[in-house]
Each structure stands twice: as structure tokens, then as C-alpha cells.
Amino acid sequence: MATNGTTFSTSSLKVFFQSKRAGLEAQLVSRLVEFIDATTKSLDCAIYDLRHPDVLAALRRVVTGGKKLRIAFDGAQKKTEQDLKNFKLLGQSTPVHPTGNHLMHNKYLVRDGKSVWTGSANFTPGGLELQDNNCLIIKSASLAKQYATEFNQLITPQSFVTAPSPSKTVNVGSVKITPFFAPGASEGIEDKVVEVLQGAQRVRVMAFLISDPGILNALTAFREPGFDILGVLDPHGMKDALGHKTPDPLLFWFLNDPRFVNAPSHAFNPNGEQDFMHNKLMIIDDRLVVTGSYNFSENAEANDENLVLIESQAVAAAYTAYFDALFTTYS
Questions:
Q1: Which of 2, 43, 162, 291 has its CA 20 to 30 A from that of 300?
Q2: Homologous superfamily assigned to 2-330
Q3: Cβ-based neighbours of 198, under 8 Å, separated by 6 or more
Q4: What tens digit of pLDDT does each residue of 108-158 get?
Q5: pTM score above 0.90
């Protein structure tokens, strides 16, 4: 087992922690390209936004190398569609929800039916280089099978997945990992997050936004000053989530609580790359990590999303060190 400020690794699990602002350079671009280039037979890629030229070039090499590639992307991302065309990848690609209100918001790959890449980062220059994100590589055929099942549903024509999705706990060495998928899980992901918060004694939160009523209600139990909770938020993500509404001070108590800090990110710029605090992460009682593409919002329940629940004190300690680095920097 090895760990440093940007990487935690075992023989079957690697976690990468990225934050340019906090001086944590996990080299996500080269790590992702290396993962893609290691494909021997097949690669499935479900990604909300795919525009990094190095990643697109690596995906193209999968095709020219005679291996099977399938890409699912959010149909509203026209820049992604154009880049896929430029790299001659449209023939391997399926736009998901091109006219709908919901997002294909996943960020994962399944390689050779044996390994999964997942996390909070989109495959863009901003997502891989500028933003605060965490990504994981998990070697597990059992986990890969669950992600592959979800991917197959995702690219089914006219599909809007409402059936229950696979969610079986797998052992990855001494680490237990349980995946959850939306929208098949419906309120299941929210229910799981609320469940792990109930009775917790120590909580760390890094969130692009928090607006789900169930999760907000669960967090109200921790608003008393003596509770051991700390958080890092993206102020622009929170602002977008609230819209023009005045936040309920009982539900959104953390917006004015010194135990929560804001990342010095910038508002969305349609003509540039984003530098959000983009993690969707909770660390519970130094033993449980919740992370993935799933924002803690009501809308996420209807999006195509994935989240993993990781049971491991060692993994939780690595994520806590990452949290501490960002919290200290932004304080």
C-alpha cells in the first residue's frame, strides 16, 4: 500500500487527488491516457463531456489498434460531438438524451471487462487539469460487470433506465466497494447517503453543490457548533443550485458556518475552461467514503450517474488528507 498527497494505491485500487489550487498535481491526463492505452480487447466510455485532445487521441488509438470502443456522451454537448467527429469517433459514439431535460452525467470507463475508471472529473482540460477532482482505477471483474451492465442499458436506443440497476458489494483486496447507478436507483442513492449520515460522529464534505432536500435534512443534525463536521463547497455551484431562491437558513445553515469554506473558483464561462471545486464527496467516521459523478441534488436522481461507497479506513484516511489540504488552502 502506498500513499502520498496525490495518489493512494494498492495492488487493485488507485485513487488520484487533483487540485491545482492546492498544489496537488495528480497528472490525471497522463493517468487516463495510460489507462486507455492499456486496452487489449474492449473499452466502454460513458462521459458527460469529452474534449481533451490527448484523451480523444488515445481513444482513437483504441480504434486504429483493432479493439472495440463504445462511447456514450451527453447529447446536449455539441462541442464534444464536434470533437468526436474531428477525431473520427462518431461511429463508435452514442448521444444520450440529446433533447431531454436530464443529463448523461457519468464519468467512467470499463476496460476489457476487468477494470473500471470512475470519479468526478470530466475528460476536458478543465476537468483533468484545473478543477478539484478525484478519480479511481479499480481492478475487479465483478465491479466491471456491473458497470458494463449499466453501460449496455445506457446506449440502448430510446432507453431511459428506470429498472433497478446492479448494486452488489465487491471486495477489492481488503476494501469493500458498492456501486450505485441513477436513474435506475431512483431515490436509492439519496437514501444511502442519508443512511450513512444518520448517527455519524465525524463528517467531511466536499461538494460542488448540495440541494437535495433529503440530504439537507440529514445534515441539519450536525449544525450544532460542537459537532465534528467540516466542508468545502464551490460557491458558484451552490449559487446555480439555489437560483433566485432565498435559502432556508435551517436547511442551508452551512452557507454561513465557519466550519465550511468556499473554494476561490470562478463562475461558469461558456467560452473557457472551468476551475470548479468539482468533487462530490463525503467521508464518514474515518471509515467510509462516498464519491462519484453524483451531485448531492434532486436533479441527480433523474440523471445518468454513478457513485461508489468505499468501506476502508486506509482509503478514508487518504481522502481525509486530500480534504485537509483543500480545507487549509481555502481557509
A1: 43
A2: Endonuclease Chain A (3.30.870.10)
A3: 218, 221
A4: 999 999 999 999 999 999 999 999 999 999 999 999 999 999 999 999 865
A5: yes
Distance between first and last Cα of the chain: 31
Going edge to edge, which strands form the sheet with 280-284?
170-172, 175-182, 305-311, 288-292, 280-284, 202-207, 228-233, 260-262
Q: Among candidates 29, 35, 38, which has minimal Cα distance to 67?
A: 38
The three cell numbers locating residue 79: 462541442
**pLDDT tens per residue across span 41-63:** 999 999 999 999 999 999 999 99
Neighbouring C-alpha atoms within 13 Å toward the C-beta of 250: 4
Our CA angle for 133, 135, 141, nearest 5°, is 160
Closest CA to 39 of 88, 111, 102, 104: 111
Element (H, E) at 117: strand 115-119
More confident residue, 162 or 305: 305
Q: Are the C-beta atoms of residues 189 and 305 closer than 8 Å to each other?
A: yes
Q: Where are the domains of the chain?
A: 2-330
Task: Choose among 187, 161, 180, 184: nearest CA to 97.
Answer: 161
